């Protein structure tokens, strides 16, 4: 490595070796998956967006276009990245609105195609509705985390627009974020999650074993549960 | 370069230094900085003296200058405060061209006849600008910098190097512009990609670049390279085949009812700018100078000329129109019209053949890309340049460094083909934290205290050893949690040879009893929550 741009010391062995390629897209596991990835631009007529194989137990039909997904509590951002990874890898665009904290390195590791991830800053909160409305229809996946409470009329208008244009609105909630006036079509939460890896000063974070619960309305009314590694040791959401 | 058919017009450039700060009422000896998209966009003299520089992050700047006042950039205020300056300069010449709030230019030939000589023109210009600034901002302001040279580009550089007042102004004698430009670094061309290549070719100055044969430059760098070389040679940047625009290129919109507030006209203005851009594009033209005209209910006619060295893309046009309306409608009484606007017209005053170096908001690969890029362009129109950004791989040791966000400009095609994932032969970053990376990297890391079993702050010694096992984590505005498990510490010492950019820090992964894993960073004796493994 010639002249290093600085130096680090006292790193455990696994850090210095595994750290060589920090962001790596997962290798496609089957020929069908590889073919799906190579194809760019999902046909507009398709009713669902693909999700990664780890999520198929929770979303057997994929991500239905025009629907809304609510993510709340710890792990909301990891779930959001897991949800959009496969779709962006197969040609869909995603935008994240006014959520500057979203980890881009984690997104790359989860398999999100960063070339199709737009990060939208919001200098003026009053423009939130107009910006999200402009993105719906143009982009397939829109991640929102409003800082102000959304008015019921706005929520209805955005939901109707998303249904009409086939975009998926992913709402990232949290303790500091206000609640939405209505409940989403599908809600994903982490039931219990355990980080594995670190002990008292030894090792490092390796993976989080978490049970994900999917509830919702309509065809999602039946509760589904699945244990996932979110993320696993490569940063990819996968089955244990 | 010898085809200087037309003499380059002699130009005076007026620059108000640190305008983003001056417009917010900051006096020069107050340490202050203006942030745009999380980075320092401008810093006051006092802050610069303490080591604050453009492009730094907020945390870095605050580390250099702890007492610095941090302000958010307010482009509307910049436009509003600058319009009176441009209006006052119309006493000297009607041909004032504004390039952005804080800088404008005019040809000196006309006013010279009135005022006698360049010296008296400088005196008069300085008087006019200072009088306006005194009235608008107060008696303490950085004043203006003036430069005169053949051609606007050379005059702009002269003004950039000038000191305050008439005495500090730089006048490049007629015919000396090429000699004045020759020793300047290629970076001043404002084209970072081109400058990067030129420097690697060993062409570090404008003089060296200008000495290349035109054919070679066009062959290697295309039309954009040719325009840049003309600038470097002291010629006008626009290629010679500038056409007089046909009059029917002007676009107008009638406003009914008359409007007197920007929020009511902003949407129409943006649509008008896009229409102008699309019309020109349809004819294979691009615009470098645009006149924004407005008529009021009382029959007043307002006009202001905006110009840019490069061509004005759709969003750049929309920005100019918005700034101008901001200046007229919300400016101080002398420039504010007495009635609402009834008509808004955009006249493309100077057009050049579109050479494709600014590829508008199209050029996506697939239908989905095109749809997405169009929607994102609309958002850029709503929120302004720089609001939509795409990640680009850069490399680094911390989750916050590995990817940077680059603004989506007109060049979506480039952005899409850009390297957003590391190449296979990317150099390793020793000391990088391995995957999984945190899903939440905090833009504003919360201060925290990591305490041992006796309530003392946990420290890390010079060899990277913790003073005691951490037991409690106290986060400002986030309560207190117990440490269930932890890993590290991993120290990093970066750029130790560079006193300004040297960074030394220690990272520690902590899993708390609430099940949340966090990445803590110790820098300059303070713990912060840098990221959360959300």
What does it look like?
The complex is a heterodimer of chains A (240) and B (534). By secondary structure, chain A is of the alpha/beta class. Chain A has one domain: P-loop containing nucleotide triphosphate hydrolases (Rossmann fold), CATH 3.40.50.300. Chain A contains six helices and twelve strands. Chain A has an eight-stranded mixed β-sheet, with helices on both faces. Chain A has a two-stranded antiparallel sheet with strand order 2-3. The two termini of chain A are 36 Å apart. Chain B is α+β, with helices and mostly antiparallel strands and 534 residues long. Chain B folds into four domains: 223 residues, Alpha-Beta Plaits; 107 residues, Dna Ligase, domain 1 (2-Layer Sandwich); 60 residues, no CATH class; 94 residues, no CATH class. Helices cover 33% and strands 28% of the residues of chain B. In chain B, the strands form four sheets. Chain B has a nine-stranded mixed β-sheet, sandwiched between helices. In chain B, strand 18 and strand 19 form a beta hairpin. In chain B, helix 4 packs across helix 6, helix 4 crosses helix 14 and helix 13 packs antiparallel against helix 14. At the A-B interface, strand 1, helix 1, helix 3, helix 4 and strand 6 of A face helix 15, strand 13, helix 17, strand 15 and strand 17 of B. Strand 10 of chain A pairs parallel with strand 17 of chain B, so a sheet runs across the interface.
